[in-house]
Amino acid sequence: SKEVAGGSFHFYHEGMGRRTVENVKYENALYRALERDEFVLFYQPQIDYCSGRLTGVEALIRWNHPVEGLVPPGIFIPLAEQTGLIVPIGEWVMREAAGQLKKWLDAGYPPISMAVNLSAAQFEQDDLVSVVERVLEETGIPPGTFHLELTENQLMRDSELAIETMHRLKKLGVHLAIDDFGTGYSSLGYLQKFPVSTLKIDRSFIRDLMDDDDDRALTDTIITMAGNLGMKVIAEGVETKPQADYLATRKCTLMQGYFFSPPIPARQLEKEFLKNEKG
Ligand code: C2E
Ligand code: CA
Ligand code: CA
Ligand code: CA
What we know:
Number of helices: 12
Oligomer: single chain
Distance between the termini: 46 Å
Protein name: Diguanylate cyclase/phosphodiesterase with PAS/PAC and GAF sensor(S)
Helix content: 40-55%
Bound molecules: ligand C2E, calcium ion
Organism: Edaphobacillus lindanitolerans
Keywords: Coiled coil
């Protein structure tokens, strides 16, 4: 079966629902991590394969643990979601990501987009729209450069409410993307109702693109469908040139994956991607 991104989700899976001593300790540690500013964002390039240009980045959180080192999100995001800590953590992510983009724009780098991931609990907060509005005001980034990624299943939980929230977000000028597309259970009928500008094809379909007919058929269908609906498509998890070339023949030219770059720190992105585009 198709796996969820991150790969390390199993670490804390068993008994995660229980409030064990370990769990509570861990929860406190997460809370302190936020207070001590131990979270960091890495940025993964999104490339237009036709032009070779950087079009945007996706911000991905890591926990820079004083003892354990860099802890990937698959380890701590599930617990943060369960405990509700994802709400303040997610707000920090938005501020940090938007603030970083502002620095890049001020430094004269070409305009790119900044995508952040929204958890279900964040999406369901009454004040999400005002939080996003405040982040835009405080940082002063053009709203159109800010992209919020939501998963299909998140949108299907209470789709009427989701659609309303999405419209309010869209009014702020931000763009919405459906993450991990193809793994959820939203119907095509619903897809039309969601005011999203981008579909991100889940990397589990890209992984076997070259030798799995079903994955290829599904990928082709998503690209065609998105085109018909006037949406952009980003293929996630592109690891090889044959995958990239195949996608290009299908007119999907926006790509993200290890073939181009893993998520990297801001400084490294500046050196390896932004500097080349300056001027
Ligand atoms: P995602 O949003 O689907 O992010 C893409 C994940 O795929 C990232 O893992 C990225 O490093 C990985 N990836 C990118 N290209 C490739 C590739 O070519 N091959 C392979 N095998 N993997 C690739 P990461 O950074 O460990 O994040 C895992 C998940 O954690 C994310 O999946 C997202 O659901 C969640 N996450 C990360 N940051 C945040 C955040 O700030 N807030 C929330 N709510 N969730 C986050
Ligand atoms: Ca995924
Ligand atoms: Ca994402
Ligand atoms: Ca994804």
